[in-house]
Amino acid sequence: MRIFIASSGERLNMAIEVGSWLEGMNVEPVLWNEPEVFPLGAYTWDALIDLSENVDAAIFIFGEDDQIWFRGESTMTVRDNVLLEYGLFSGKLSKANTIFLCDGRPKLASDLEGITWGDIRKKNSVRIKLENWINSIRASNQKKVKGFKITDLNDAFQIALKNQKTEKLRIFAISTFKSVQMLRLINDISINHAEIMLREYDNKNDEYYDQSMEGAIDNAILNWKHMLENDHKIKELDIFRFNYHPDEGYYIFDDKYLILGNLKYEMDKKEYTFSKNVMLIDNQTETGRTWIKEYITRFEDTKKNYETSVMQYCDIES
């Protein structure tokens, strides 16, 4: 999940702090001052419209930024562009997915009267309210999932693991280092049997060989073993190694969900990336069930070719 955070320049530090809270809730914050928000050569309003189509929700920080005269009296109000942007995002994302936090008691537009807002100075209570709000968005997204959905890997995990218990998890990828770290942060999950296929390099003959990537794979294996032996989130773990370079990676949760993403390797930079956006496919449609079945077959066929390199582990406490 990606959430845009906007504020005046004077309250940028508050926006950064809110961003750190969101990161602790497995959310990707997008602050208004990040280079990707306003790229060179783009009109500000056009950039904001584009951004509103590439985030899931938005948080605006309203402060006592500017002095105005209202009905003969001096008062402090929200920065005009922050208020304007709030209107844009609430229109694009819905008012349920666009909220504002107040620093002090700035004058608000009368159209906003009655909307519940958070007091950013009450940090403990507002963090709890933010987490409840994020969970409500995730729950709403889960209800909308039917067939195919484009999302990010963390949100795909949250949806696929919503029932907490998975009998069989199959993963085919190069390293899984980042994804296993994400999985370790999700509470109260139970995976009966995980089968992980990871890349194996021949550092003499492999044109894709990269020592840093091999280190990432080793760290991923350590994290998988930690989920088994220390976190006790996995009862049985099999790790397979394959020796060719794939162009896709995927995760299969039982026969219910398939998460599919592209793998890209830039030879000149010796750099590999897993696609930021993934496709989440569920078994609620005939087409979805066909895709999941096809990838289970593909996984099992690949596994047969490499079963001699399997490493097997078992949670001795289970």
TrEMBL record:
InterPro entries, per this entry? CAP12/PCTIR_TIR_dom
UniProt cross-references to Pfam families, sorted A to Z:
CAP12-PCTIR_TIR (PF10137)
Superkingdom field: Bacteria
Query: Which keywords label this protein?
Result: DNA-binding
Output the Gene Ontology terms for molecular function. DNA binding; NADP+ nucleosidase activity
Q: What is this protein called?
A: DNA-binding protein
